């Protein structure tokens, strides 16, 4: 089997995906038109030309602007449904989807509108496509901890639809310690917790996410390699890192895919996984991320299977579901 065919054939779980980052320009234009919202671009080509980021902030500015056309539950449904269709194409059979409620509530869109649209798409994806999913409510770390507390409160009536709490947006200058109290409350309320750390921020932020936020998983975490003691801890605790190769390249976290550390970390025994982060902005969905690292780093077929197995081990699926998918991978 050709290696790209193996990648396509492997069942995979996606654990780091921002639904607002899966907003393709074509759908953005369609929704802007039906909602009669102005966007500062004349064509899809013009939108794509604006996607020349050089760091996280230059991306986030455009990402938040794009999300501003989303107004109604149907818009959130259409956004999520388009992503589920990509999952089906890429054999992503389970996904844990991040959404940023504050990006919408701060514009006057009700929390309920966002969750209704996303949740209905999740239910339909399971019924019609057989794809399972969980929602991760992410706090914007450039905003205050009080604002995160307010969001946690708004989520209370919808707690049965949200399994996980996360932390995203501008990392440097907004350490995990800023959110220690609200994460503690979220854990008390029964949420699992994840946080972006060690993308642009230092390895110290990964320590904080582990020790202060008590996360079950680290998003990105690629800068952990700068700290040997942290690496030993990640390995011994089997702490998952949700690595996003095309994102790292596009945001200049790495200069060249051949220099990406995912293979090195895998070989050292870190529970690394492959994810697409914001695929509409970074040039590809799950399989594109696998193709990019397989080609640039000459990954073996065994390493590719290991990454797919990790994606289920690092997921929040029940154990019997994990075992079912891992057995299927081992049978390929
Ligand atoms: N990092 C931080 N915040 C984000 C990202 C990311 O990669 N994508 C969307 N919000
Ligand atoms: Zn992310």
Automatic annotation (TrEMBL):
Q: Which UniProt keywords apply?
A: Hydrolase, Metal-binding, Nucleotide metabolism, Zinc
| Full protein name | Adenine deaminase
Name a single GO cellular component: cytosol
Enzyme Commission numbers on file: 3.5.4.2
Note how many cofactor molecules are bound and how.
Answer: Binds 1 zinc ion per subunit.
Q: Say which family it is in.
A: Belongs to the metallo-dependent hydrolases superfamily. Adenosine and AMP deaminases family. Adenine deaminase type 2 subfamily.
Q: Which organism is it from?
A: Acinetobacter qingfengensis
The record's annotation in Gene3D superfamilies points to: Metal-dependent hydrolases
What the entry lists under Pfam families is as follows:
A_deaminase (PF00962)
Q: What is the lineage of its organism?
A: Bacteria, Pseudomonadati, Pseudomonadota, Gammaproteobacteria, Moraxellales
Per UniProt, residues of the Adenosine deaminase domain are: 11-330
Q: For substrate, which residues are the binding ones? A: 278
- Role noted for this protein: Catalyzes the hydrolytic deamination of adenine to hypoxanthine. Plays an important role in the purine salvage pathway and in nitrogen catabolism.
- Any GO BP annotation: nucleotide metabolic process
